[in-house]
């Protein structure tokens, strides 16, 4: 019996479980005050990447069966601050449906007066409203997913409370603060996916990141236009879809990745040359050059 829907998910899941095993080890064994603090600091960026994989899992679950999916979502909840079905309701059934409409988008980047939010305003606002908005999406249209969301959230809180009962100091720095930090980092990263792009055309509504290291660690989340075009497509197939769409995506809808991949000019906008767009789409470079000469 095959446990995974896609074999490409095996190594990432093993890595997530390895990180969680280290979390539990630090929680159970750390006796010096600085060890949990250091572990918290070291984990901010890696757990930010894990947020991307939690996102992929909520679009297309890694396992074929419910129980392993729910168990993995408990791990994801402690690592990312996003519990079972929260991404599914807020992001898959909310944002993906409404992202072209800033009056409805669950991750809206515009204020009510039509002006653009700052990074901090957007990040804090989206993080603080994430769970209420997920609840509202479920309450209006998806009662089955809402029941799972509420039940798993209660279980996550009970488990977190048990950890605090065992060791409140270690639970704070190994679990609760990383959950809060990861949720904020996740919402901050999504600011750069769509900000300023008000359009009815899916090909013109997302920024893309082509950096190999970024896409390796985030499961190709940089191919964001492709992701919104077919949000149920497995993460491993997004580069191929992006190649098919490359000629339709405006050359100015690309960005540099964030820290730690780029420290100077993080999230800076890029404009691809016609040569680069042709290369992405697999079109012969010579043909592109002939067009320029004509």
**Could you tell me the radius of gyration in angstroms?**
20 Å
Low-confidence stretches: 287-294
Strand percentage lies at under 5%
Which sequence of SSEs, written as H and E, runs from N to C? HHHHHHHHHHEEHH
Total count of helical runs of at least 4 residues? 12
Query: Distance between the terminal alpha carbons, to the nearest Å?
Result: 58 Å
Helix content: 55-70%
Largest sheet: 2 strands, antiparallel
How would you classify the helix and strand content by structural class?
A: mainly alpha
Mean pLDDT across the residues is 94
When the domains are counted, the total is: 2
Shape: globular
InterPro entries: FA_desaturase_dom
Pfam families: FA_desaturase
Protein name: Fatty acid desaturase
Keywords: Membrane, Transmembrane, Transmembrane helix
Give the tags.
12 helices, 2 strands, 2 domains, mainly alpha, 294 residues, transmembrane helix
Walkthrough of the structure:
By secondary structure, the chain is mainly alpha-helical. The chain has 2 domains: 1-198, no CATH class; 203-294, no CATH class. Helices cover 63% and strands 1% of the residues. It contains 12 helices and 2 strands. Strands 1-2 form a two-stranded antiparallel ribbon. The longest helix has 27 residues, at 168-194. The termini are far apart. The relative contact order is 0.11. Residues 287-294 have low confidence and may be disordered.
Quick synopsis:
With 294 residues, the protein is mainly α.
Outline the fold blueprint:
Elements: H1 10-29, H2 34-59, H3 66-80, H4 86-98, H5 119-141, H6 143-166, H7 168-194, H8 212-218, H9 224-229, H10 238-245, E1 254-255, E2 269-270, H11 274-281, H12 285-293
Antiparallel strand pairs: 1-2
């Amino acid at each position: 019996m095959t446990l995974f829907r896609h074999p490409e998910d095996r190594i990432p899941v093993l890595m997530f479980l390895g990180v969680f095993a280290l979390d539990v080890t630090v929680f159970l064994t750390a006796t010096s005050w600085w060890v949990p603090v250091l572990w918290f600091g070291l984990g901010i960026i890696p757990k930010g990447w894990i947020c991307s994989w939690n996102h992929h899992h909520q679009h297309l679950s890694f396992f074929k069966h419910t129980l392993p999916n729910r168990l993995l979502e408990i791990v994801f909840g402690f690592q990312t601050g996003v519990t079972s079905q929260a991404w599914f309701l807020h992001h898959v059934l909310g944002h993906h449906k409404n992202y072209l409409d800033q009056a409805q988008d669950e991750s809206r980047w515009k204020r009510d007066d039509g002006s653009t939010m700052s990074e901090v305003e957007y990040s804090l606002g989206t993080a603080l409203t994430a769970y209420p908005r997920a609840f509202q999406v479920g309450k209006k249209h998806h009662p089955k997913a809402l029941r799972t969301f509420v039940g798993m959230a209660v279980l996550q809180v009970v488990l977190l409370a048990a950890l605090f009962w065992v060791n409140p100091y270690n639970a704070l720095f190994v679990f609760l603060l990383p959950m809060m930090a990861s949720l904020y980092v996740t919402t901050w990263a999504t600011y750069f996916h769509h900000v300023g792009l008000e359009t009815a055309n899916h090909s013109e509504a997302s920024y893309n990141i082509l950096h190999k290291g970024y896409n390796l660690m985030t499961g190709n989340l940089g191919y964001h236009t492709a992701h919104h075009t077919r949000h149920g497509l497995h993460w491993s197939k997004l580069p191929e879809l992006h190649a098919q769409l490359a000629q339709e995506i405006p050359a100015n809808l690309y960005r540099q990745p964030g820290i730690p991949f780029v420290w100077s000019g993080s999230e800076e906008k890029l404009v691809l040359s016609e040569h680069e767009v042709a290369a992405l789409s697999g079109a012969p470079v010579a043909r592109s050059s002939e067009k320029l000469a004509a």
